[in-house]
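[job 4471] stage=fold_predict status=RUNNING
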Amino acid sequence: MDTAGKRRVLGVLIGSQESQNSWSELLRQLTDRGLRGVRLMIADDHAGIAAALRTHLPEATYQRCTVHLVRNIIQKVPHRLRGRLVPRFAELFKASSLSRAEKLPAELAT
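[job 4471] inference complete, writing structure tokens
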């Protein structure tokens, strides 16, 4: 996000795959154009993204995208339980404190 809180497209690169090399090329282009001060990258769980980030923006923290995480969790939940459990997954990400978030998985399992 920019200083006004707006999202901006910083670059586009067509790569043959989501590899570390492809992500490194995009991040290299962005840093060559002056990208600095990145504090957080949120992305899906892809080793290539994380490795490229460590190389080109080592000061930035990597966080797993909650949308992708929930989609992966849902795939593991039996169909008969999805209607009951899926709406409650949002509680994990909206918890009022870390201690509350740490208690929620056990509550969801019951």
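[job 4471] summary: The chain has a mean pLDDT of 88.
[job 4471] exit 0
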